[in-house]
Write a structure and sequence with these properties.
It is a single chain. The protein has helices spanning 14-29, 52-57, 75-96, 108-119, 138-148, 157-165, 179-186, 192-199, 221-235, 252-265, 278-287, 297-300, 332-343, 345-351, 363-373; strands at 5-11, 33-40, 64-66, 100-104, 124-127, 151-154, 173-175, 207-211, 240-244, 270-273, 290-293, 309-312, 325-328. β1 (5-11), α1 (14-29) and β2 form a beta-alpha-beta unit. It is an alpha/beta fold and 391 residues long. It folds into two domains: 5-178 and 359-373, 3-Layer(aba) Sandwich (Rossmann fold), CATH 3.40.50; 191-351, 3-Layer(aba) Sandwich (Rossmann fold). α1 (14-29) packs across α15 (363-373), α3 (75-96) runs parallel beside α4 (108-119) and α9 (221-235) runs parallel beside α10 (252-265). 50% of the residues are buried.
Length: 391
């Protein structure tokens, strides 16, 4: 392998950055690699906390910024944001000339980056492929990126089989675990008093952390589900709640207004945050009693903290989950029953014994071993891998 391979990471959201950060640090520390970083989407938006500042505060140098997020509350805004992203990434990749582009997950920002890299003949390493989330457009985007990617670093064996089912060669599909668990298990967490002072709220039990995103294939569904969650918090006066903003998807702006208004009506026991940042978020997971909503983090990272999650609705339908995850529909009755189960002493104790199907906290080590030893492609031409008995 030649020296100083340029590995370009693309990040557009707070959640995805948290998953990528440990791998970015490992690449930066490796003499044979040069880390490149492109920031886009929500990271550059004041509406969502302009979290590029948190990335820079972590010591990373941002090599390029792609202003692709067209704020709006419709699918049209999302489509236009993809178009802006394709144009922006085309220029950035042409200038940075990376040897590899690293993309995680399934958001529309990553689709734009994947299209640009693929057409420019730049190999893509894709993380978290092969997963299923049937309630959102992320499902199709994730599988589309899989078909454009060269290397696949998946979080569990069922996902590896699914990527192979999509026609990818088994020799390029690696089961490594979820890199976000590396952060969850190894990051230095904030002590509770420091976290309370930073957030400006006492984390009194029962304490809930709520992250609820739009369900892009079912308009109106997420608003209804969020309303039911807020009604539960309103009715149960002893509850303390930390609310975080949803993603920049259709209907997200309306949900943000709901959260802001609700927090203003419940001072002292409800706090809303545009973005908690990786360290505050993971520290909170150590101190809250239940995580509620439809975020992938509730299924991926939270089980590693021995805490229960209440997963609402269909956004994560089909995704692998630990036994500590309670699934419910979006009705008030089902949400209340799920939260009460999650808060029960017996279930709280049970969650501390649960193993996390998304990995053991050593994903980054496995990925680094692979890319150090692998033969890097000279071009991205690849053969469709037919399953046995086909073709």
């Amino acid at each position: 392998m030649s020296t100083s391979r340029r590995i370009c990471f693309v990040t557009g959201t707070r959640a995805e950055y948290g998953l990528l950060a440990p791998l970015m640090r490992a690449v930066r520390a490796e003499p044979i690699f040069t880390l490149q970083l492109v920031v886009c989407g929500m990271h550059l938006s004041p509406q969502f906390g302009r979290t590029v500042g948190e990335i820079e505060a972590d010591g990373f140098v941002v090599d390029a910024r792609v202003e692709n997020l067209l704020l709006g509350d419709s699918s049209v805004s999302m489509v236009k944001s993809v178009g802006l992203g394709v144009i922006g990434f085309a220029d950035v990749f042409d200038r940075l000339n990376p040897d590899l582009v690293v993309l995680l997950g399934d958001r529309f920002e990553m689709l734009a980056a994947a299209q640009s890299a693929y057409i420019q003949n730049i190999p893509i390493a894709h993380l978290h492929g092969g997963e299923v989330t049937e309630g959102v457009i992320d499902e199709g985007i994730r599988h589309a990126i899989t078909k454009m990617a060269w290397w696949h670093f998946v979080a569990a064996e069922p996902f590896r089989q699914r990527v192979i089912q999509l026609g990818e060669s088994p020799e390029r599909v690696f089961c490594v675990g979820a890199p976000g668990i590396d952060n969850a298990l190894h990051m230095n967490k904030m002590p509770k008093p420091e976290l309370e002072a930073d957030l400006g709220i006492a984390l009194k039990s029962p304490c809930l952390l709520v992250t609820h995103h739009p369900v892009t294939l079912m308009p109106g569904r997420a608003v209804s589900e969020l309303t039911a969650v807020l009604d539960y918090i309103d009715k149960n006066k002893e509850v303390t709640a930390i609310l975080t903003y949803p993603n920049a998807d259709a209907e997200g702006l309306g949900m943000i207004r709901m959260l802001d208004d609700f927090a203003a009506q419940h001072p002292g026991r409800v706090r809303v945050s545009a973005s908690l940042g990786v360290r505050r978020y993971l520290s909170l997971l150590s101190h809250v009693d239940v995580v509620i909503g439809n975020s992938s983090s509730a299924l991926i990272e939270v089980p590693s903290f021995g805490k229960p999650s209440v997963n609402i609705g269909s956004r994560q339908s089909g995704r692998l989950s630990a036994e500590s995850v309670i699934h419910c529909d979006g009705s008030r009755e089902s949400i209340e029953a799920a939260v009460q189960k999650a808060l029960s002493p017996g279930f709280q104790a049970f969650c501390k014994t649960v193993s996390n199907p998304f990995g053991d906290g050593h994903a980054v080590d496995r990925i680094m071993d692979i890319i150090r030893a692998a033969s890097w492609p000279k071009n991205i031409s690849k053969r469709f891998h037919d399953l046995a008995g086909m073709g």
